[in-house]
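User: Hello! My lab partner asked me to get a predicted holo structure for this protein. The small molecule is flavin mononucleotide, SMILES included with the sequence. Please write out the structure tokens.
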Amino acid sequence: METQNRLGSRIAFGVCGGIAAYKAAESVRLLSQAGHDVHTITTQWGARFIGPLTLEALSGNPCISSDAIDGSMRHIALMREVDLLLVAPLTAETLAKFAHGHADHLLTQSYLAFRGPVVVFPAMNTAMLEHPATQRNLDQLRADGVRVILGESGALACGETGPGRMAEPELIAEVVESVLTQPLPGLKGARVLVTAGPTREALDPVRYLTNRSSGRMGLALARALRNAGAIVTLVHGPINERLPWGTENVAVTSAAQMADAVLSRADDQDVLVLCAAVADYAPVYAAQKLKKDQFDGQLKLNRTQDILASLGQRKRTDQILVGFAAESENVTANARRKLESKNLDLIFANDISRPDGGFEGTENALFALGPNGFCMDLGHHSKTELATQITSIINTKRTTGTL
Ligand SMILES: Cc1cc2nc3c(=O)[nH]c(=O)nc-3n(C[C@H](O)[C@H](O)[C@H](O)COP(=O)(O)O)c2cc1C
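Assistant: Hello! Below are the structure tokens for the protein in complex with flavin mononucleotide.
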């Protein structure tokens, strides 16, 4: 089965002179922790905002600083060896130099000397970012094949609020994984819809019924499928986790909204991965808050639409429909029954009676089942690792038609 090569890449990490340089330290830490070999390069101004010693300690490699120039040409040698150049923060000044091909310091020279992928994370005052000169320079970088990732609008160190903040370190690490991961042939350019999280069924304006799903498995799947080159739409219930970057994220609350969001998009998809824990029943809604003394202790529940079964009925032969089963007994037998009754192509089943049984945690243990008796124990791993395995299985199904 084809897998994705994710870890152990060599990264050149440029740091320019802006307040957001403090986030470079955490970004370097996250990338090193993820198994990458990180080599930092600071501009003279960058080294005034963050000490090269901090970057050296966090990366485990010497920092190449434009303050300490010698005849070693280390930076040019480094650019022959790394898989990626990222710059965070990228200042307006160094952006302008990149756009115009200047080579006046070690980072601008490294940029020109590098033939691989470049990702930049600009950070500056909103007016500086919106200035036509900066916008022209950003367009020039995009035209030159550089990925430009802007952070969300928010409070800036200069006291203003607006666009110009640098992306957070977790997002920087996620973008790096996505750029460094090899696409898979069966998923590159494929349209994939993933659902994640619980739904919330309102009883009255202040109360609702829900379940323990954290959404982590679905989010990990959306990220792994995106890394494999798919165009991912994520339909998610109320979750407290950071949403993926580079996917279309559609927020819903109730099972009925989830059904609308999924069914209205289903015909455009090549693969549908339904991982959300959708409520099977929804209470009859009381428009006014239920009063203690008026409530008789009985909840009237109505069956919600079975999204998976609806998709199974209308599925095209060229679509792959993937379901999940949370079972507390006879895990594989019950999952196979669900696979067959709902006309699925694959089902991933977990045993929720186990203490490590999937809900809320960061790990899970899954079985993969398909038609013709296909059954595979994927083992107990992090949800990220399981999502990578599931992505490989879907890729195999797309490329070979069988398992
Ligand atoms: C306190 C302070 C904060 C700054 N913050 C930023 C910033 O966030 N973004 C930016 O583009 N420039 C910022 N600058 C201006 C840059 O430091 C300046 O343009 C410098 O020449 C950048 O050099 P470099 O790109 O070689 O690192 C700041 C300057 C000071 C003094």
